[in-house]
Amino acid sequence: MAEKKKVLFLLPKKEQSSQEKLGEILAKKADLEPFFAYKADEVENPAEFEVLVSFFYDWLQKILPEMKKLKWIHFLSAGVDTLWDWGLEKKGYIFSKSSGVHAQPISDHVMAMALYFSRELGMFERQKRKKEWQGHPLGELQGMTMGILGMGAIGRACARKARALGMRVVGTASRPREMEGVEYVGGAEAVEKVLRESDYLVVALPLTKKTEGLLGQKELEKMKKNAVIINIARGEIINEPDLIKCLQEEKIKGAGLDVFAEEPLPENSSLWEMGNVLITPHNAGSTPYYMERALEIFLENWEAYREGQSLPTGVDLGKGY
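-> C-alpha coordinates emitted (321 positions)
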Protein backbone atom coordinates (compact mmCIF):
# COMPACT_ATOMS: atom_id res chain seq x y z
CA MET A 1 0.00 0.00 0.00
CA ALA A 2 1.44 3.37 -1.09
CA GLU A 3 2.27 5.83 1.63
CA LYS A 4 -0.16 8.75 1.83
CA LYS A 5 1.20 12.10 0.76
CA LYS A 6 1.52 14.56 3.61
CA VAL A 7 -0.25 17.86 3.02
CA LEU A 8 0.30 20.94 5.18
CA PHE A 9 -2.75 23.16 5.67
CA LEU A 10 -1.90 26.63 7.03
CA LEU A 11 -5.20 28.17 8.10
CA PRO A 12 -6.41 31.31 9.90
CA LYS A 13 -6.67 30.97 13.68
CA LYS A 14 -10.44 31.45 13.47
CA GLU A 15 -10.72 28.17 11.52
CA GLN A 16 -9.25 26.10 14.36
CA SER A 17 -12.76 25.28 15.61
CA SER A 18 -13.57 23.88 12.13
CA GLN A 19 -10.54 21.58 11.98
CA GLU A 20 -12.51 18.42 12.82
CA LYS A 21 -15.12 19.16 10.16
CA LEU A 22 -12.50 19.95 7.53
CA GLY A 23 -10.61 16.81 8.46
CA GLU A 24 -13.75 14.73 7.97
CA ILE A 25 -14.28 16.20 4.49
CA LEU A 26 -10.70 15.36 3.54
CA ALA A 27 -10.94 11.84 4.95
CA LYS A 28 -14.03 11.10 2.85
CA LYS A 29 -12.79 12.56 -0.41
CA ALA A 30 -9.00 12.36 -0.55
CA ASP A 31 -6.25 9.84 0.09
CA LEU A 32 -3.84 12.12 1.93
CA GLU A 33 -2.47 12.79 5.40
CA PRO A 34 -3.40 16.35 6.47
CA PHE A 35 -1.56 18.42 9.05
CA PHE A 36 -3.26 21.60 10.23
CA ALA A 37 -1.32 24.57 11.58
CA TYR A 38 -2.32 28.13 12.47
CA LYS A 39 1.05 29.80 13.00
CA ALA A 40 4.64 29.20 11.97
CA ASP A 41 5.92 27.53 15.16
CA GLU A 42 3.22 24.83 14.95
CA VAL A 43 4.91 23.33 11.88
CA GLU A 44 7.40 20.96 13.49
CA ASN A 45 8.96 19.40 10.39
CA PRO A 46 8.38 21.48 7.23
CA ALA A 47 10.72 19.28 5.19
CA GLU A 48 8.30 16.32 5.11
CA PHE A 49 5.52 17.97 3.08
CA GLU A 50 5.15 17.71 -0.69
CA VAL A 51 1.98 19.80 -0.84
CA LEU A 52 1.11 23.09 0.87
CA VAL A 53 -2.36 24.64 1.15
CA SER A 54 -2.29 28.19 2.48
CA PHE A 55 -3.17 31.85 2.28
CA PHE A 56 -0.41 34.44 1.72
CA TYR A 57 0.86 34.89 5.28
CA ASP A 58 3.96 37.05 5.72
CA TRP A 59 5.54 34.35 7.87
CA LEU A 60 5.00 31.76 5.14
CA GLN A 61 8.14 33.05 3.42
CA LYS A 62 10.19 31.89 6.43
CA ILE A 63 8.89 28.32 6.18
CA LEU A 64 9.19 27.81 2.43
CA PRO A 65 13.03 27.47 2.31
CA GLU A 66 12.71 24.63 4.87
CA MET A 67 10.17 22.73 2.76
CA LYS A 68 12.73 20.70 0.80
CA LYS A 69 10.18 18.24 -0.67
CA LEU A 70 7.61 20.87 -1.63
CA LYS A 71 6.31 20.55 -5.20
CA TRP A 72 2.87 22.14 -5.23
CA ILE A 73 1.33 25.16 -3.47
CA HIS A 74 -2.44 25.58 -3.54
CA PHE A 75 -3.47 29.05 -2.43
CA LEU A 76 -6.77 29.41 -0.59
CA SER A 77 -7.24 32.86 -2.12
CA ALA A 78 -8.47 33.54 -5.65
CA GLY A 79 -6.04 36.40 -6.27
CA VAL A 80 -2.36 35.42 -6.47
CA ASP A 81 -0.57 38.67 -7.36
CA THR A 82 1.49 38.29 -4.14
CA LEU A 83 3.13 35.28 -5.77
CA TRP A 84 5.13 37.68 -7.98
CA ASP A 85 5.74 40.12 -5.14
CA TRP A 86 7.54 37.30 -3.34
CA GLY A 87 9.33 36.03 -6.45
CA LEU A 88 7.84 32.55 -6.08
CA GLU A 89 7.35 32.22 -9.83
CA LYS A 90 11.09 31.52 -10.08
CA LYS A 91 11.11 28.64 -7.57
CA GLY A 92 9.84 25.88 -9.84
CA TYR A 93 6.76 25.01 -7.82
CA ILE A 94 3.37 24.09 -9.28
CA PHE A 95 0.76 26.67 -8.25
CA SER A 96 -3.00 26.63 -8.08
CA LYS A 97 -5.56 29.02 -6.64
CA SER A 98 -9.10 28.99 -5.29
CA SER A 99 -10.70 30.77 -8.24
CA GLY A 100 -14.48 30.59 -7.98
CA VAL A 101 -14.57 30.53 -4.18
CA HIS A 102 -15.81 34.13 -4.07
CA ALA A 103 -18.39 33.98 -6.83
CA GLN A 104 -21.48 33.75 -4.65
CA PRO A 105 -20.73 36.32 -1.89
CA ILE A 106 -18.99 38.86 -4.13
CA SER A 107 -21.73 38.79 -6.76
CA ASP A 108 -24.24 39.38 -3.93
CA HIS A 109 -22.08 42.31 -2.82
CA VAL A 110 -21.99 43.76 -6.34
CA MET A 111 -25.77 43.62 -6.68
CA ALA A 112 -26.18 45.17 -3.22
CA MET A 113 -23.94 48.06 -4.27
CA ALA A 114 -25.87 48.52 -7.52
CA LEU A 115 -29.16 48.62 -5.60
CA TYR A 116 -27.65 51.04 -3.07
CA PHE A 117 -27.09 53.59 -5.83
CA SER A 118 -30.23 52.79 -7.84
CA ARG A 119 -32.52 53.18 -4.82
CA GLU A 120 -30.49 56.07 -3.31
CA LEU A 121 -30.02 54.27 0.00
CA GLY A 122 -27.09 56.47 0.99
CA MET A 123 -29.31 59.55 0.81
CA PHE A 124 -31.95 57.90 2.98
CA GLU A 125 -29.33 56.88 5.54
CA ARG A 126 -28.18 60.51 5.74
CA GLN A 127 -31.81 61.63 6.15
CA LYS A 128 -32.29 59.11 8.93
CA ARG A 129 -29.39 60.58 10.90
CA LYS A 130 -31.07 64.00 10.61
CA LYS A 131 -34.56 62.57 11.35
CA GLU A 132 -35.69 63.99 8.03
CA TRP A 133 -38.80 62.59 6.26
CA GLN A 134 -38.49 63.34 2.54
CA GLY A 135 -39.31 61.22 -0.51
CA HIS A 136 -37.25 61.33 -3.74
CA PRO A 137 -37.41 59.99 -7.33
CA LEU A 138 -35.66 56.61 -7.45
CA GLY A 139 -34.28 54.41 -10.20
CA GLU A 140 -34.58 50.76 -11.22
CA LEU A 141 -32.01 48.22 -12.31
CA GLN A 142 -34.33 46.74 -14.93
CA GLY A 143 -33.37 48.00 -18.36
CA MET A 144 -29.98 49.28 -17.16
CA THR A 145 -26.71 47.95 -18.60
CA MET A 146 -24.17 46.20 -16.40
CA GLY A 147 -20.71 46.09 -17.94
CA ILE A 148 -18.33 43.54 -16.46
CA LEU A 149 -14.58 43.76 -16.98
CA GLY A 150 -13.42 40.21 -16.35
CA MET A 151 -15.81 37.35 -17.05
CA GLY A 152 -14.29 34.84 -14.65
CA ALA A 153 -16.35 33.03 -12.01
CA ILE A 154 -17.26 36.28 -10.22
CA GLY A 155 -18.09 38.08 -13.45
CA ARG A 156 -20.31 35.25 -14.63
CA ALA A 157 -22.14 35.12 -11.29
CA CYS A 158 -22.72 38.89 -11.49
CA ALA A 159 -24.05 38.47 -15.02
CA ARG A 160 -26.58 35.81 -13.96
CA LYS A 161 -27.91 37.94 -11.10
CA ALA A 162 -28.03 41.11 -13.21
CA ARG A 163 -30.01 39.29 -15.89
CA ALA A 164 -32.41 37.99 -13.24
CA LEU A 165 -33.15 41.63 -12.36
CA GLY A 166 -33.81 42.51 -15.98
CA MET A 167 -30.49 44.14 -16.78
CA ARG A 168 -28.65 44.03 -20.08
CA VAL A 169 -25.15 42.60 -19.64
CA VAL A 170 -21.99 43.19 -21.68
CA GLY A 171 -18.41 42.40 -20.79
CA THR A 172 -14.82 41.56 -21.55
CA ALA A 173 -12.63 38.50 -21.05
CA SER A 174 -9.14 37.41 -22.06
CA ARG A 175 -10.58 36.72 -25.53
CA PRO A 176 -13.97 37.25 -27.24
CA ARG A 177 -16.49 34.47 -26.60
CA GLU A 178 -20.15 33.57 -26.53
CA MET A 179 -21.77 33.52 -23.10
CA GLU A 180 -25.37 32.70 -22.29
CA GLY A 181 -27.36 35.71 -21.14
CA VAL A 182 -24.61 38.18 -22.08
CA GLU A 183 -25.11 40.35 -25.16
CA TYR A 184 -21.42 40.30 -26.02
CA VAL A 185 -18.11 39.41 -24.43
CA GLY A 186 -15.19 41.08 -26.15
CA GLY A 187 -11.46 40.93 -25.60
CA ALA A 188 -9.24 43.79 -24.44
CA GLU A 189 -10.27 45.78 -27.52
CA ALA A 190 -13.85 45.97 -26.18
CA VAL A 191 -13.01 47.78 -22.91
CA GLU A 192 -13.83 51.23 -24.34
CA LYS A 193 -17.15 49.99 -25.75
CA VAL A 194 -18.11 48.52 -22.36
CA LEU A 195 -17.14 51.75 -20.60
CA ARG A 196 -19.35 53.84 -22.88
CA GLU A 197 -22.39 51.56 -22.59
CA SER A 198 -22.40 50.73 -18.88
CA ASP A 199 -24.74 52.19 -16.30
CA TYR A 200 -23.00 49.99 -13.72
CA LEU A 201 -19.41 49.02 -14.46
CA VAL A 202 -18.06 46.06 -12.46
CA VAL A 203 -14.30 45.62 -12.25
CA ALA A 204 -13.62 41.90 -11.74
CA LEU A 205 -10.17 41.55 -13.34
CA PRO A 206 -7.08 39.92 -11.87
CA LEU A 207 -4.25 42.32 -11.06
CA THR A 208 -1.46 41.86 -13.61
CA LYS A 209 1.07 44.08 -15.36
CA LYS A 210 -1.51 44.60 -18.11
CA THR A 211 -4.40 45.53 -15.80
CA GLU A 212 -2.54 47.72 -13.28
CA GLY A 213 -3.67 51.31 -13.85
CA LEU A 214 -6.03 50.17 -16.61
CA LEU A 215 -8.69 52.73 -15.69
CA GLY A 216 -7.49 56.31 -15.40
CA GLN A 217 -9.04 59.70 -16.11
CA LYS A 218 -9.05 59.15 -19.88
CA GLU A 219 -10.99 55.90 -19.52
CA LEU A 220 -13.30 57.06 -16.72
CA GLU A 221 -14.38 60.12 -18.70
CA LYS A 222 -15.68 57.81 -21.43
CA MET A 223 -18.34 56.55 -19.04
CA LYS A 224 -21.87 57.94 -18.79
CA LYS A 225 -22.35 60.85 -16.40
CA ASN A 226 -24.91 58.82 -14.43
CA ALA A 227 -22.74 55.68 -14.35
CA VAL A 228 -21.55 53.90 -11.20
CA ILE A 229 -18.26 52.00 -11.01
CA ILE A 230 -18.01 48.99 -8.67
CA ASN A 231 -14.56 47.60 -7.90
CA ILE A 232 -14.32 44.24 -6.12
CA ALA A 233 -11.05 43.17 -7.80
CA ARG A 234 -7.90 45.09 -6.81
CA GLY A 235 -7.50 48.77 -6.02
CA GLU A 236 -4.47 49.18 -8.28
CA ILE A 237 -6.54 48.51 -11.40
CA ILE A 238 -8.10 51.98 -11.08
CA ASN A 239 -5.97 55.12 -10.81
CA GLU A 240 -7.35 56.29 -7.45
CA PRO A 241 -6.49 60.03 -7.73
CA ASP A 242 -8.13 60.08 -11.19
CA LEU A 243 -11.22 58.34 -9.82
CA ILE A 244 -11.48 60.85 -6.96
CA LYS A 245 -11.19 63.72 -9.43
CA CYS A 246 -13.94 62.30 -11.67
CA LEU A 247 -16.22 61.78 -8.67
CA GLN A 248 -15.60 65.26 -7.31
CA GLU A 249 -16.30 66.80 -10.71
CA GLU A 250 -19.38 64.56 -11.13
CA LYS A 251 -18.04 63.05 -14.34
CA ILE A 252 -19.66 59.82 -13.06
CA LYS A 253 -22.45 59.35 -10.52
CA GLY A 254 -20.70 57.23 -7.91
CA ALA A 255 -18.43 54.38 -6.90
CA GLY A 256 -18.87 51.26 -4.81
CA LEU A 257 -15.39 50.29 -3.64
CA ASP A 258 -14.32 47.20 -1.74
CA VAL A 259 -10.63 47.44 -2.67
CA PHE A 260 -8.10 50.26 -2.65
CA ALA A 261 -4.58 51.10 -3.76
CA GLU A 262 -3.54 51.22 -0.09
CA GLU A 263 -5.23 49.09 2.52
CA PRO A 264 -6.44 49.91 5.09
CA LEU A 265 -7.67 53.03 3.32
CA PRO A 266 -5.74 55.95 4.90
CA GLU A 267 -7.74 58.24 7.18
CA ASN A 268 -6.77 61.24 5.05
CA SER A 269 -8.23 59.78 1.85
CA SER A 270 -10.85 62.02 0.25
CA LEU A 271 -12.96 58.94 -0.45
CA TRP A 272 -14.08 58.77 3.20
CA GLU A 273 -15.89 62.09 2.99
CA MET A 274 -17.57 61.66 -0.39
CA GLY A 275 -21.34 61.19 -0.39
CA ASN A 276 -21.29 59.43 -3.76
CA VAL A 277 -18.88 56.70 -2.62
CA LEU A 278 -19.78 53.46 -0.82
CA ILE A 279 -16.83 51.91 1.02
CA THR A 280 -16.47 48.36 2.32
CA PRO A 281 -13.14 47.18 3.82
CA HIS A 282 -12.06 44.49 1.31
CA ASN A 283 -14.83 42.38 2.76
CA ALA A 284 -16.98 41.47 -0.25
CA GLY A 285 -15.87 37.84 -0.21
CA SER A 286 -16.92 37.24 3.40
CA THR A 287 -19.09 34.16 3.85
CA PRO A 288 -19.50 31.44 6.50
CA TYR A 289 -18.97 28.85 3.73
CA TYR A 290 -15.55 30.05 2.54
CA MET A 291 -13.36 27.22 3.82
CA GLU A 292 -15.73 24.47 2.70
CA ARG A 293 -15.84 25.90 -0.82
CA ALA A 294 -12.09 26.47 -0.90
CA LEU A 295 -11.52 22.90 0.23
CA GLU A 296 -13.71 21.55 -2.57
CA ILE A 297 -11.64 23.52 -5.09
CA PHE A 298 -8.44 22.10 -3.58
CA LEU A 299 -9.85 18.56 -3.84
CA GLU A 300 -10.60 19.02 -7.55
CA ASN A 301 -6.98 20.02 -8.04
CA TRP A 302 -5.79 17.17 -5.80
CA GLU A 303 -7.38 14.55 -8.06
CA ALA A 304 -5.72 16.08 -11.11
CA TYR A 305 -2.36 16.32 -9.29
CA ARG A 306 -2.48 12.64 -8.32
CA GLU A 307 -3.16 11.66 -11.94
CA GLY A 308 -0.39 13.89 -13.30
CA GLN A 309 -2.91 16.07 -15.13
CA SER A 310 -3.05 19.86 -15.48
CA LEU A 311 -4.69 21.48 -12.47
CA PRO A 312 -8.25 22.86 -13.00
CA THR A 313 -7.41 26.14 -11.26
CA GLY A 314 -3.69 26.17 -11.95
CA VAL A 315 -1.86 29.49 -12.07
CA ASP A 316 -0.69 30.47 -15.56
CA LEU A 317 2.68 32.10 -14.90
CA GLY A 318 2.72 33.50 -18.43
CA LYS A 319 -0.58 35.33 -18.02
CA GLY A 320 0.14 36.40 -14.45
CA TYR A 321 -2.91 34.82 -12.78
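The chain has two domains: 5-101+287-306, 103-279.
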